[in-house]
Each structure stands twice: as C-alpha cells, then as structure tokens.
Amino acid sequence: MSARSTHKGFASSHAIPPNPTFIDFPRSDGDPSNWPLNTTPHIDSEGHVNYMRQAALDESLSIKWRVEVAAALASKLNMAQGNYALQGWPTGYQMFDHNKGPKDNPRHDAYLIGSTYAKRFRSVPEFIPHALWLLTDPALDRSNCNCKYCNKKPQREITASMNLLPKRGGSAPSAANTPTRTVQPPRLKRQPQQPKERLVRDQEKGSRDKERFRPYVGVRRMPKPVRQPAPKQSMLRERNSDLSCAYGPEVKVRRWFRDGELLWCALNTPIDGPSGPGGDDSIFFWPGLVEETRMKPTPIPKDADMDILDGPSNGHPSSNADSSNGDEEVPWIIRHDLSYKMKLLGISQSLYISDQLVLPYQSVAPSDELIQAIHAVSYEDLDPDPARTFAFNPYSTSSEVTFAKAAAPYGIALQIGANISGYWTPTDDWEFKFSVEYPNSGPPQSVSTFQSLDSVMNSSMAHNANLASSMATPSGSGSHTPSISASLPPLAPTQTIVQTRYQGLWWGAERIWTDELIRLKFSRGQIAPEGNDLINAPAGPSRKAQEYARSMGGQVGGAEGRGVFMRIEGLFVADPPSGRGSKVCHAVGTLYELVDEDWEEELDGREIVVNKGKGKAIENGNSNMDGLLELDGVPSGLSFMNGPSPLKPPPLANPDPAVSIESTTTDVLSHSNIAGASAPTAPPRDANSALSHPVLSAFPLPKAPDGFKFRPILKPGHEIVVDLTWIAGRYYPGLLEHRLLDRHVERALAAGGTQLWALEGLTAGCYNAMDPTKWKPTRTAMVREASHDARVGLEEHWKNKEKERQEAKLLEGTFLPPLPPSGMDSGEGGSGLGESSGAAAPGSTGNGQSFVNGKEERMELGVTEDGMLEEVAMAVD
C-alpha cells in the first residue's frame, strides 16, 4: 500500500538525527526515463487535480524515508550502533508526492520512482529489500533481490521474513499500574452469639447452600461449527467462463468457441477460382485461431426495421438480439453482438469477425477442385516469398486479390491448419488422492504381479459392496444393536493412491473441458446392441415414427444407427492394461444416445437383458476379474499408447458408406479398448473430487438436434472409461442450420453424404472425427511447430514440382514426331505433315535415338492400329 497521508502529515517535522552516518549507493538500476510526466498541476472541470510533485531531498517526506531505510540497512548489515541516514537516492531515483483530489485538500501518496524493475515503491518496507540488494550485489543479479517486484512474493511475507515490522514494547510501570501491598486490618476476636442470631445465621446458610446446588439453566448463542477445509484445487477460471457462456441457463448470447481453437472464417468477398465466380475451386473460408472474444452492446431504435435488429441469421449458435428490461420509455433496444479476434493462418492479419461468420474446423473441408487449382498454379505465379505471403490480406477490397496471389498463402494456411489438428495434450493437471481398503487377508492377488490403477479401484469397490451387504440388517429382523462385548473385526489395511487428473484437453482443433458433452466415434449399435447388466439396449423408434413409416410403406430405425455422446466427468492418467509402456490418458463419464422426441421408455418393446448370466459370462459382454465390462469384440488389454507420443492410435476402420454401420461393428471394435467401470453405488463426492464434477456447477445438457432428445444408456451408478482415441470432437447444437452451411447441406442431401450428419450425432462420429496423434505440452508449441513444418514442407514440395515441370518441358523436345501410317512414304503426303515427317527432331540422330544433356536416350516404339507411334519403354543411360 502507498504511504497515504494529508499534506499536513507530509509537512510534519522529520529531521536528520544528530551526528548521522550517511549511507551512499555505489550502484543503481535507476533510469530518469521512468519518471512520470504529469508533473504540472492542472485543475479539471470538477476542481480536482491529479499530478506528481517532485519532493526535494531535504523535505520532511524524503527525510522520513532516508532515515527509516538507512536504519533498516544498518541493522541488516550489522553496522555499529548510531544514527544513520541515506546520503541521497540511488542514481536515477526520485521521490514524488502524488496529489489527487480536490485542489484545496488533495490526497497525498508518496512514491519512490526510477527503478528499471519496479514501476514505483509505495512504502519504506517495499524499498528496504531492494535497497539492500543495491548495496550488496555488485553484479546486480535480479534473482538475488528479495523485494516484491523482483521476487514475486507478497509484501506481507517479505516484511515478516526480514523482521521489518516496528517493535512494540510495553510501557514502563507507573504509580497507576504498579501493584501495591494492601494492609489487612487486624482480626477481631469472635464474640459468642445469641441463640436468635444463630438461628438467623443458619437460615441464611441454608438458603446459600440451596442456591449453590440448584441445576443450571441458561440460554446462549449457538456456537458455530468448525468450517470444513476448502478444496485444495480450484476450478479454472477459463473453464468456468467457457462452460457458463455455452451452457448457462440464463445466457442470452451463447459463446461456443474458445481461445486457441481453430475455426473457418468466411470471407466477405470470395476469391474466385479459375472456373469463375461461385465455382467449387473458389476460396470461401480462411482458417484462423481465436485470440480473444468481444461482446459489444449496440443500441437500436425501437422504430427501426426488425431485420436490422435481428442482424445476420442466428441459427447457430445464438441470438444476437437482446431486448432491454428497463423502462418502457427508453426509445431503444440493446443488441449484443459477439465477435472473435481471429489470427488468420499463414499471414500476419488479425481482425474481429462476427460470430455469425465463423464455423467449426470440422464442418468444412476444402474441395478437391480447389486443391487441384492450387497445384495447377505455376511456381512463378505462386511466389511463395515469406515477405509477400505474410503481407497478403484476403479481406482486402482491392482488385489485386487474385487466385494466383492467394494460392501460396492459402496453401500454407491449409497445411498449418491440418498440422494443428494433429496435436493433442491434456491441460491443467491436479493430483487427486484417495484411499482404497483391502480385505483383511491383504491386497487381492492377481495372476500377474502388476496391478493397474483401474483394477485396484474396482476390486476395492467390490470389496466395500460385499462388506456393506454383509453388515446390513436382515429384512424383518427389527433393529439390530451390536454387542459391546463382541469382538470387533480387525481394521482393513488401506492404501493411498495419487491419481493425476486434468480439467481440460486440447484435441486437434478444439478445446474440450470436463463437464461438457462430446461426440464419440462409434455408433449406438456398436455398444451392447442387445443390452446387458450395465448398458441399456438401443432405443427403438417412437410410436409416431412407426406409424409414419407404415403409412409411407417403409421402415424406420431406432437409435442404433445414430451416434453416441459422452458427458466427460473426468480425465485421468493410468498405467496401461498390459503394465508395460508409457502411461495412458482416459476419459470417464456418462453415455447418451439420441432418441425420438416423443419416445417413451415404457412403450419401447425391445427386451433389455438385466441380470442375465450373473456369476458367469454376461451375454453380449464379459465381466473380467477386475469388475470391468468388456464389450463385444474388444480384446482385453489392448492399448494404443505406444511410441514417443503418449497417444498414438491406429487409424480407425473407416466403414464403406455403402455398407450399413451395423455390418462394420466387428471390424471397428476389433481395434477398440473400452471399459465400463462399475460401482455398486454412486461414490460420494468430497471436496477434492469437485473438479470431476464441481459442486454447484453442474451445467445442463445442450439442446438436442430438432426432433430428438438425449437418453442416458448406462445403468445408474455406472460410468464408462474410454481411451481418448475414441473422442470424435465437440458437439455444436443447431450447427446444420447455420446459413454458411446451406451450400454444403444441400450437396450432402443430394449426394447422400454422412460427414455433416455426424456433427450432430445423426450418424456415427467416425464419419467426421479428429485423430490427433502428436503430443505437445502447450498450444503455443503446437502452433509454432505446425507453422514451421508447413512452410518448410510446402517450400520443398513446390520446388520439387517446379523441378519436375522443368524436366518434363525439357523432355518434350526430345520426343520423335509422329510417323506416317505403314505403307506410306516418309517424305510424301500425309495431312500436310510430310515436310516435317522425314526430318529428325532437334537433338535426335534420326535413327530412333536422341541425346539429352549429352546422355543417350533409347526409346522403344510400337505402332498402334491407326499408325501412330506408341512409347513402350524408356531408359536413360
């Protein structure tokens, strides 16, 4: 805090003590350029001032600092007893009196300004550690300074550690508080009492005894119980902000995209390709990274056109209009406009773009025609010079923005975006500690000496469930009071396990947080298609859907053909199932399927297998000895976490679009590693487990696609654990209704594509998924490496393509001209080609051989049916 006082306080008497020893600074980190510039008094319209006044060295304010700092320095340096004062300030330093407030009675704050490392010192205790560093460190190594600005510690800790607090001594004893001996008066000899006096005395004594032994009754304020300790880990502010803005029930304008995510930015004017305006080879979107978000309120007159109020189409992700709830007399309505500051890839441009002009990275892919058009641009027209590509601006209205000039920077941007989508990393780790109890006989022994964290947790939960059931009171037995004399069972040994958990995840182009809904790669029909003890069977079609299908003479399917959603409740690191290799990262949460909006549970005629095969293998799913569920076709212990990256999944089996998803179940699941961790009851959440599902921060599920609703498919008290490789990406409600996707939706409807439908879970997530395989610790490292690799790789690619073109052009001149048909003289006739038919090509010997750069090139030629020459083989010696 600054040393605040009135001007009268600054003018109070502070003088140099008699016979002082002056301390001078031999070195300094000061610079006069750091001094403030507002040193001239200026009275504003309200009669206030706000300026810095230089305090002279002999002023009372300066003397106070000089004496107190010098005394502390002498004490720290073990100097002889005496009076000390600073000779002056360190070179480049100056004491300032900050005058702020009414001109007749402003507030005064003292600041010592000039240090290169500290903007200002606000008090004597703040400057003492820095002054000590200036006196004792000849090298001025900042790491040796213990002030709050160099050491980054709170001033309270520094003051306490250096004993800078003023000593508080007790006052000297005075006559008022000096204890004195009280002289007792001499005791008088007791005189014999009369009988009446004795009776009165006995009555008084009896009443006092009765009063002494009366039971006490009183009313007092209820004492407050001891407050439980707060969670050791707090919810990340960025995570809370992103989830609240996307899923909060009271949010008017929803913000779906997060800082650092990769998006497509719609260009104001598309860059036309070689085929002309609006062609498939035109550039409509440019990839970019979100740098920040901005919400701008805009007042709109109430009599304005409602089309202006509505703004752009708001099918995704939110409404831009927000009516004011204030007085009806206010002649305007407030509209909140959300925009993103986008850093365009491949170039140096950053600009604010409306939330209605950006799309998720997975929603758009460059067309084959556009990629071919970029490859067709010659190396001279590409001009991939970094100085030119960095300066390119696709949002410029200049007529110089042509496809040829945009090809190189756009190609670089595409490659950077593709590289970024290949990285992943979990973020914001924290340690979760919990205890597991083993049976009295000791920890469970498995076939192998290795036990994974999952097996330890599940065996512990199974043991606790058996223990709870054995101790439960039998039905109808009434209350059960345990005998005190009965022997208590020995305490079960416990083991404390530390599990590394994470609050978020960078997954390719997207930022994923726990507590949000994501898409998985497999379809609903691939997870317990007949149902079992832990997972419900897929829901069938609703009654209305069945009636409509019968009226149309067709058939309708249920949820088995749609995608699967997962609400992430935790991200953690565990040992691989095999016990060998690097650790693996898992996601745990609840599964949901899409059912018809009017679907009802009791009307679904599908049979659900419940408690079938108990104690033995479960039909359509086997239970292993760790209590985990193994789905059909999933080999036990299979892991994808091998190699230098902690996550290197094999390529997911991509089903043929012509084949139904149900037919590909075995093939896709043969690569999987899914486990459903079961628990007899939902585990209680303590303070430290709040990050997996924060207390009082359970965000509601997002809106389901039109005509559908979400249905949980796991039995109560169960959760599923999956490898991260099964994550397809985020779910964006209402994305297919976005006006920028109208062109793509129409084509998908005409061509029967499934890529777009997977974004809303209408088909399996594997049709539109990210498959990152490279691990980097930070998003910055991902972007930096992606940009470097893209530029180096494309530069080499373009140079090789240009080299091939030059070689092809050079070889064109070495080919022989066409010969006339058989039976025709080489020097006569033939469609005006006779004059050149008999001549040898440049560089040719005329005998079927040619020379390129002095090397002999032999070509074996054959004759086709129409008499033209056909090249059979070529060899260059």
From TrEMBL:
Q: Where is the signal peptide?
A: none
Q: Domain (Cryptic loci regulator 2 N-terminal): give its ranges.
A: 84-150
* Transmembrane intervals: none
Ranges of biased composition (kind: Polar residues): 174-183, 315-324, 469-481
Q: Name any one Pfam family assigned in the record.
A: Clr2_transil
Q: What cellular-component terms does GO give this entry?
A: mating-type region heterochromatin; rDNA heterochromatin; SHREC complex
Q: Where is the composition biased (Basic and acidic residues)?
A: 195-212
Q: Where on the tree of life does the source sit, at the highest rank? A: Eukaryota
Single biological process term from Gene Ontology: silent mating-type cassette heterochromatin formation
List, as start-end ranges, the regions of compositional bias called Low complexity.
836-848
**Disordered: region residues:** 1-34, 165-212, 300-328, 469-488, 643-665, 811-877
Q: Where is the composition biased (Gly residues)?
A: 826-835
Q: What is this protein called?
A: Cryptic loci regulator 2 N-terminal domain-containing protein
